[in-house]
Amino acid sequence: MRIFFFPVLLACLVLPAAAQQFDVAFGLGGVSSTSAANASGNYFPQNVGGGTFLGFSGDYLFRRQLGIEGEISWRASQNLYAGSQPFRPIFWDFNGIWAPAIGSRLTPELLAGIGAETVRFYQPYFICSGFGCTNYTSQSQFMGDFGGGLRFYVTHSIFVRPEARLYLIHDNYLFSSGYATRYGVSIGYSFGRR
Fold this sequence. Notes:
Strand content: over 45%
Number of helices: 1
Radius of gyration: 18 Å
CATH architecture: Beta Barrel
Order of helices and strands: HEEEEEEEEE
Shape: elongated
Strand order of the largest sheet: 1-2-3-5-6-7-8-9
Oligomer: single chain
Structural class: mainly beta
Number of domains: 1
CATH topology: Porin
Number of strands: 9
């Protein structure tokens, strides 16, 4: 997760000066997937969804409507894996984005990209390494994602965005399915909007 923040920080500091448009947003929502009772094949009967998910996103539109986007979304509270092991799913991805403005107050977004589902399993003790100590271990799975949103500009620069994402998670044997759907709403700010 730390590797995600350096490029976002760099983008926040450098890109707005030269960018046509740079957007940042904070959101909340939920994740759903196949129920644990319907798990089949190589999937474990555990649902990745449920609970409230928080998230940050940012995009840079360098061709008026085309650009790049990155986001991270995580479960706000821990859940129990197999009824006993505390865990937290985290979804992070980098995408290509198309955001054509429709009038002065409305901008739809379509995006697709790649990323990972990282699951943190929490322990009652700390594990130390040369980089520090943590009370969790992590397991990551590669994923592709597709989604969209609809920005409603409340002012010239502040927007509210209902959004949805479909995550296609490769070899997601930890949970009941190889896909998950995230839906929610974000509040954001656009820098350099015309």
